[in-house]
Amino acid sequence: MKWNAREVLEQQGTLCSFSLSEEFAPIEVGGEQLAFIEPVTLWGEAVADEREDVHVMATLSAKLHVVCARCLEAFDFAVEAKVGETFNSKPDPQDSEAMVYTNDTLVFDGLVEQIVRLELPIALVCDATCKGLCPVCGKNRNTEPCDC
Among 48, 86, 94, 122, which residue's Cβ finds the most Cβ atoms within 10 Å? Predict the structure, then answer.
């Protein structure tokens, strides 16, 4: 997911709106592949300062196809998060994790993946009331009774 920030760099101090949407490949989390079921969208505003660093304030929206940790049924999990990031015009030797842009282009791929990972709960559960699988017979206690 890339955005050409030439306009915002030419108008330092002025907020510029942007909106991006792109298909993303599945990401691996905890040994499982999580697939995005619709394009990831990122929209918001950006402003450049006198050092030509670009400050981005945006909202990220994504939907993933996941498996419930209790009942093992597949379900869709929505992610929506506020994003605030600065893209530096030059690498910062004191901050190896700083985002740096080149040729006026901001690349959001790594940031999107990082935010999605941070927004995922430790255990993905289809519903707070999910009863899970019976530990004895393995039946899904949400859909069928078990006499164990």
Answer: 48
